[in-house]
Structures are given as structure tokens and as C-alpha cells.
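Supplementary Methods. Inverse-folding protocol.

Structures were first reduced to a C-alpha cell string of length 151. This string, shown here, constituted the complete conditioning input.
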């Protein structure tokens, strides 16, 4: 693994060291993300299910959430299908936004890969408009890199 540049990346890597259970690792990662970033109302994962061809709800922290999202739908599905991180300052202005929680106003979604193949996404929501920027995007991309070694 390349050098970790962020404290949260180092924390996640240490937390997951020698752990192999992907559900446990994603659960602890969701808690770390949720409690490390201020003004976040949801943090968790959607995992691609090859059998149903949907992104299925994984471990998370926050209110109840949508259980299945189609690739290319909403911010989560768009980030997954486009294979790129998306920072959305105002989810209500995002064409096709899926409102799992009406309180969410901005969102950051970063794809996760396992062995070079799309695995799922990290999804973080905030009630604050324009909550996420380039700094958070790069930090969460590093978290996705760490997770790819532990899922």
C-alpha cells in the first residue's frame, strides 16, 4: 500500500490491521467516518450485488436508508457506474437524486475497488449545503484505498 497522507487514513489502516471480515471492517469504517467528520448525518456503504445488478445497502451510521440503488441512479449509482468520485454541493439540484433522507443537502460518494474491479461506494451525506470539497474527496479516496486492502 502506498504512503497514507491523512490521519483518518492511518487510523482506518490501524483499525483494520489483521482483520479479514468485510462486514466488521465496513462497520468500523462507517463509524470512524461518521464520528470523524463534522456536520455529517449519514455515512456508510453500498455494495454491488452481481446477482441482482444493484447496489445494496451495507454497514452505515445514521438514519434508515434506501436498501437498493440501481447503478447510474442518483449520486451513488452515478459515482459507481462512472467509476469516479462525486462531490455534490446541493443534492436537490442533482438530476435523478434519490432522497433516502429528506434532511440531506450535500453528498460525497467515492467508489471502492477490490482487485481492480468495482466493489461498491463510500457514501457520506450532510444536512449542510456545500459541506464537502476537494480535501474531503481526497481523504475519502484514501479511505477507499485502505478498505480495498481489507474487504
Amino acid at each position: 500500500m502506498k504512503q497514507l497522507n491523512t490521519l483518518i487514513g492511518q487510523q482506518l489502516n490501524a483499525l483494520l490491521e489483521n482483520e479479514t471480515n468485510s462486514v466488521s471492517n465496513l462497520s468500523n469504517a462507517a463509524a470512524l467516518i461518521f464520528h470523524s467528520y463534522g456536520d455529517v448525518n449519514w455515512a456508510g456503504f453500498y455494495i454491488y450485488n452481481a446477482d441482482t445488478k444493484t447496489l445494496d445497502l451495507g454497514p452505515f451510521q445514521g438514519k434508515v436508508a434506501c436498501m437498493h440503488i440501481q447503478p447510474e441512479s442518483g449520486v451513488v449509482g452515478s459515482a459507481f457506474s462512472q467509476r469516479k468520485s462525486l462531490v455534490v454541493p446541493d443534492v436537490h439540484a442533482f438530476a435523478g437524486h434519490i432522497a433516502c433522507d429528506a434532511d440531506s443537502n450535500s453528498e460525497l460518494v467515492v467508489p471502492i475497488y477490490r482487485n481492480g474491479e468495482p466493489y461498491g461506494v463510500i457514501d457520506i451525506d450532510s444536512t449542510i449545503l456545500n459541506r464537502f470539497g476537494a480535501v474531503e474527496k481526497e481523504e475519502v479516496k484514501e479511505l477507499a484505498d485502505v478498505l480495498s486492502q481489507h474487504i
